[in-house]
Design a protein that fits this description.
This protein is mainly alpha-helical. The protein has one domain. Helix content is about 85%, strand content about 0%. The chain has three helices and no strands. The relative contact order is 0.12. Keywords: Signal. This is Secreted protein. It comes from Novosphingobium rhizovicinum.
Length: about 90
């Protein structure tokens, strides 16, 4: 009779991995990730508003606003990444 079957082994491995990840997480990391998400969401919202404003304008103005919206998105994403990377560096995460 097998005491440890493959499904049981998989459940044990998953439980161990979940506990390991839960131990690594802390509230400071959660707050930093939330702040980074908010920065990215705010830049996306601003870019969306620019794109909506660009609709119906002349093609050169529409293109210019859409390019500006893309820049805003990229800057927001870069800022959010920098926030997360800074927090990881402080916490000693690779």
């Amino acid at each position: 009779m097998k005491l440890i079957t493959m499904p049981r082994l998989a459940v044990l491995a998953l439980a161990g991995a979940s506990l390991g990840l839960a131990a690594c997480n802390n509230t400071a990391d959660d707050a930093t990730e939330q702040a980074a998400d908010q920065v990215e969401q705010a830049s996306d919202a601003a870019a969306d508003q620019l794109e909506e404003a660009a609709e119906g304008m002349s093609e050169p103005r529409e293109d210019a606003l859409e390019n500006r919206a893309e820049e805003i998105r990229e800057r927001g994403e870069a800022k959010a990444d920098a926030i997360e990377e800074g927090a990881d560096a402080q916490a000693g995460h690779p």
